[in-house]
Design brief:
Layout: H1 4-7, H2 13-24, H3 37-46, E1 50-53, H4 57-60, E2 80-81, H5 97-106, E3 115-118, H6 125-136, H7 146-150
Parallel strand pairs: 1-2, 1-3
Helix pairs in contact: 5-6
Amino acid sequence: MASPFLSNPAATPIGLLILTLKKEVFKNSNFLADFGYTEGYKNITNNKFQLLDARGEQRFLGLQPEPRKELKSGNIRGSINLPFQKLLREDRTLKKKEDLIEIFKSKKVSIEKEMAFTCGSGVTACILGLANSIISGKKPIIYDGSWAEYGLD
């Protein structure tokens, strides 16, 4: 008998948890995941927003192989690398707002300009999004397909 988990990823325990969270928790949140491959690709030419990538520098630069063999190495052209670890204290909590602002500025990120966040799979991009929300009060825009989607092309 075939496993329902293999044919339907949403049926996995983690998939069910995510579906539950989406229905119960995120329906009233400020989190916005309405962003995809098309918006990322268009931004290469129209530069409507800053795209920040939370992956480590070596992966961003294509110097470290991707953990998923089917993905090319590199980054979305025009994106800015800001490894999420730079935003965390030793106890893995976010740094103070003033420190976050300085870190963003040190990467030549304009705090006033619109931003979207990416990473390898869409998870650690949320750390950058949360930090930006603390800084600006804006809803974070997460490219939840991230490099796992974009790097297939």
